[in-house]
């Protein structure tokens, strides 16, 4: 019986080389460069086979670690962001009649607004895509490396309420000051208690001129006095929010009800012509 053996790429290591290799692996382990450590044999083989320079081999090895680190950080940012839906800007349908300008969204998608701490206010009736766009922008922000967090006005109020009771107010305020991009969804769906309105005001006020807040609401700003239970708080909040801001007035029919409407129209048409 003949055994065919493929020619080894490299001559067997001498014991000095082997101990050097072990030491290199140990260095990578101490530095927690686990992906580089794992790919070390493959990179060394490739380096020998392709006659790579030391610089090229090191670059290849560290690029593996950098890629893995970036992927881990991105996953961490996305986990932290608490995106409530898988919505992306790419799957937003601009022909659905919401009147949203695709050029404006494309500009916002670059994240430039985050550098100037510009806020985004999305106003419109239910179902027109406010949450979709806010979450899409939040996802983009997280993907671009910005610390991002998505919440609702009701959740923010509830969390601040608990924090006040448990003596964690300052920590909680710092938490909401942290993200470069903070989404506060659904202001106006549930009435905020006075304390909740004041918590929201403090969050917006402390972020003012420092970092961007994306706020969505189904209520026109003229009725925010009602929404926040206090016209002075509403005026002060709007003052901070709108000082540097992009306002998206989103209209049209509810996307959620679109199919429903289409079916109703079809049924009606059939009934009229039948
Ligand atoms: P809102 O927050 O304004 O009440 P949502 O963003 O939650 O509305 O939209 C309701 C549903 O319809 C979601 O599933 C969303 O992804 C979808 N939707 C709304 N508008 C669009 C659109 N223009 N293109 C694609 N999906 C949309
Ligand atoms: Mg919504």
DSSP strand tally: 5
> Largest sheet, if any?
5 strands, parallel
Rounded to the nearest angstrom, the radius of gyration is 27 Å
* Multimerization status: single chain
Helical segment count: 12
Query: Strand-and-helix sequence, N→C?
Result: HHHHHEHEHHEHEHHEH
Structural class: alpha/beta
> What's the helical proportion of residues?
55-70%
Main β-sheet, spatial strand arrangement: 2-3-4-1-5
Between the first and last Cα atoms, what is the distance in angstroms?
Answer: 85 Å
Overall geometry: elongated
Mean pLDDT: 92
Task: Detail the poorly predicted runs.
Answer: none
- Portion of residues in beta strands equals 5-15%
The set of bound ligands, ions and cofactors reads:
adenosine-5'-diphosphate, magnesium ion
Describe this structure in words.
By secondary structure, the chain is α/β, with parallel strands linked by helices. It is elongated, with a radius of gyration of 27 Å. It has a five-stranded parallel β-sheet with strand order 2-3-4-1-5. The protein is built from twelve helices and five strands. It has helices at about 15-30, 35-50, 55-80, 100-110, 110-115, 130-145, 155-165, 170-175, 195-205, 225-230, 230-245, 260-274; strands at about 120-125, 150, 180-185, 210-215, 245-250. It binds adenosine-5'-diphosphate (ADP) and magnesium ion. Magnesium ion (MG) binds near residues 131 and 186.
């Amino acid at each position: 019986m003949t055994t065919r053996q493929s020619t080894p790429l490299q001559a067997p290591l001498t014991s000095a080389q082997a101990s050097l290799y072990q030491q290199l692996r140990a260095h990578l382990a101490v530095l927690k460069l686990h992906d580089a450590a794992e790919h070390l044999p493959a990179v060394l083989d490739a380096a020998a086979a392709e006659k790579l320079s030391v610089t090229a081999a090191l670059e290849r090895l560290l690029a593996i670690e950098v890629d893995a680190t970036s992927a881990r950080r991105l996953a961490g940012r996305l986990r932290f962001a608490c995106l409530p839906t898988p919505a992306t800007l790419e799957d937003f349908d601009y022909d659905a009649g919401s009147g949203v300008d695709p050029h404006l969204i494309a500009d916002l998608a670059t994240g430039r607004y985050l550098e100037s701490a510009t806020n985004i206010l999305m106003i419109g009736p239910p179902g027109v895509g406010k949450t979709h766009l806010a979450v899409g922008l939040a996802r983009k922000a997280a993907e671009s490396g910005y610390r991002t967090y998505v919440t609702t006005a009701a959740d923010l109020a509830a969390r601040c309420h608990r924090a006040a009771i448990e003596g964690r107010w300052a920590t909680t305020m710092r938490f909401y000051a942290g993200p470069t991009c903070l989404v506060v969804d659904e202001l106006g769906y549930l009435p905020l208690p006075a304390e909740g309105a004041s918590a929201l005001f403090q969050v917006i006020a402390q972020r003012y001129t420092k970092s961007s807040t994306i706020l969505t609401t189904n209520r026109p700003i003229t009725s925010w006095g009602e929404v926040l239970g206090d016209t002075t708080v509403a005026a002060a909040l709007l003052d901070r929010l709108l000082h540097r801001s992009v306002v998206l007035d989103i209209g049209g029919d509810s996307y959620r009800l679109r199919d429903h409407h289409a079916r109703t129209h079809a049924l009606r048409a059939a009934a009229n012509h039948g």
